[in-house]
Amino acid sequence: MGPGPSDVSPRVLEALGRPTIGHLDPEFVGLMDEIKSLLHYAFQTNNELTLPVSAPGSAGMEACFVNLVSPGDTVIVCQNGVFGGRMKENVERCGGTAVMVEDEWGQPIDIAKVKAAFEQYPTAKVLAFVHAETSTGVQSDAKALCQLATDNHALSIVDTVTSVGGINVDIDGWGADAVYSGTQKCLSCVPGISPVSFGPRAVAAIQNREHKVQSWFLDMQLVMGYWGGNTKRAYHHTAPVNAMYALHESLLMLKEEGLENAWQRHQTHHDALVAGLEAMGLSMVVDKAHRLPQLNLVNLPEGADDAAVRAALLSEYSLEIGAGLGALAGKAWRIGLMGHACSKKNVVLCLSALDNVLSAQGAKINSGVAVAAALASY
Amino acid sequence: MGPGPSDVSPRVLEALGRPTIGHLDPEFVGLMDEIKSLLHYAFQTNNELTLPVSAPGSAGMEACFVNLVSPGDTVIVCQNGVFGGRMKENVERCGGTAVMVEDEWGQPIDIAKVKAAFEQYPTAKVLAFVHAETSTGVQSDAKALCQLATDNHALSIVDTVTSVGGINVDIDGWGADAVYSGTQKCLSCVPGISPVSFGPRAVAAIQNREHKVQSWFLDMQLVMGYWGGNTKRAYHHTAPVNAMYALHESLLMLKEEGLENAWQRHQTHHDALVAGLEAMGLSMVVDKAHRLPQLNLVNLPEGADDAAVRAALLSEYSLEIGAGLGALAGKAWRIGLMGHACSKKNVVLCLSALDNVLSAQGAKINSGVAVAAALASY
């Protein structure tokens, strides 16, 4: 129940361990086609250029930036947590200039500030932002931000690592141009793969590039030769075949459950967890309107020792919760309710264990009432 | 029995499917330390900066180039197959100039030509070459090439994707500066991870860089914060936890067998396969002195239809062999004997199946003698 990787379902682990076949085997090519189709469903898009990058989310982020940002480009980057900072690094390593729009950690992106940035930098080529900030548990208004990019003739790059499968990710509805994600959060697949999707305007920008993409491995024109279209698949790199079995299975599970049902499940267990935490006397960091159901930022109660509590949860209950990051380090915990791990069982386990460990360490809480409060919320 | 991914042993698949834990979990950090130690053994090196890149071999290649090549640098690139061409792409995308030293496909790198290139470009910063060319089944003299680089105050970048675990890879003995590899060949681990190692001269070059590495994901100074030393592990990216379980298990198996025993096993079964193929009347593409035991390039016999034979092997025998690439496309097959798949059972299966399929298709071979010839060689 940390900020990810989340618990992987036995069904996905079973798929992962199937015998490895060749990355150009006809059976594997068929599986690749199914993965693309399932990603269209998960992302709610018809974008042809939708595929899993064979590396973690950080590489998916880099794939978006190196394909769309060229030296001299101005990129407006929203930062309200850790991952906006990483986007800035990416822009600069592509030779671009990052114009930072900063909000406090724990707050969503302020649309008015982004609007002002576009007024100041009307030729900005890209707007980059994080839909669901894993470092703070905040969601921002992706639809409004993508619209703002389009209105200003800029491309949007959207981080959906923590959102896909947990809350509504609607690439076509938003009009998002480039989106990357991760497998290890609400998809409950093993970490190491980053699904990406590029819309028509982004594809046109890639096709009209003047210089080659600085990364050979992440050059989407080359990757598409392997993943794309109806033509013969050209060898680009050796795909992580077994990880693709797992991704396929996890996406199939999402489709079987249905997107809306998955979102509702995350919301239901989130509500119960919050009811329990608040009954215990703990307070949430993020305003209700912007909270991610899958990642719960809770303030440490008086008298709690951050590291000691997390160590006790791990050693006594095999339960991982995440530390706060950046401005929230030592002040908040990050409790994940992601994918397969988002269950009544885990809500009850987490509340019971926290109650026990905090009481034993003498923190100021209302002991013995959290589980009942959570159950009452169902 | 293609050119990789090779068959993965059940023991490695079992490890792969273990429950996912956090990438900063103390248990996982312990596993990371063991992986580093096992890589030191497999690569025969004491290089501190030895770790698995969380992406396929193509990304391991790129990690070496982006960290060591800066705009304006001259790099001597040896090309005697597909992967030298990919190195050229990498150099150019780093803003460097690639000086190509070309040899025929199926021939090893000619040391005299490399010497001449250094005479013509005495300030070349890097010499890059492939130890074991997966596209042609040829090995080149890595020790002599690394020495030539050192003599000319250049850094060596060495591709050992297909060699490690199958033939002698001796980073410290060679004095190699930067080496990348893959998990999916003679280590018989699942594809998707690229072990790399950087020696002291390469580390110094990285530390003295004037500009940031163009890839955030592959920036070794950042990656080291997660994988390195005795200090607290800093989050860089989410490691592909399950793939690391598998890599750990495959490296452990290599250590249990012993490097020399593993090399001998590859040589023994290679000798038997060649005896069988030659008895059948087929000829090898590569001279005996430069053949890779783990990747056997064999000329198509008269009357054989490349694609039809490979399709029949796959559908009738579940047996994959590789097509020829580049200059060898349609003219040769690539038969892998890698890692777990390098066994007497596979030698006999391959010869029997080839004999049967080629006979059925009316190719000119000596039928019915290959298996006996192979068995006589043991």
UniProtKB/TrEMBL annotation, chains A, B:
Family: Belongs to the class-V pyridoxal-phosphate-dependent aminotransferase family.
Domain of life: Bacteria
Organism: Oceanicoccus sagamiensis
Protein name: Alanine--glyoxylate aminotransferase
Domain Aminotransferase class V intervals: 21-324
Signal peptide positions (record): none
Binding sites annotated in the UniProt record for substrate: R334
Assigned keywords, A-Z: Aminotransferase, Pyridoxal phosphate, Transferase
GO biological process, one term: glycine biosynthetic process, by transamination of glyoxylate
One annotated GO molecular function: L-serine-pyruvate transaminase activity
Pfam families linked: Aminotran_5
Cofactor(s) the protein requires to work: pyridoxal 5'-phosphate
InterPro entries assigned: Aminotrans_V_dom (IPR000192), PyrdxlP-dep_Trfase (IPR015424), PyrdxlP-dep_Trfase_major (IPR015421), PyrdxlP-dep_Trfase_small (IPR015422), SP_NH2Trfase/AEP_transaminase (IPR024169)
N6-(pyridoxal phosphate)lysine PTM positions: K185
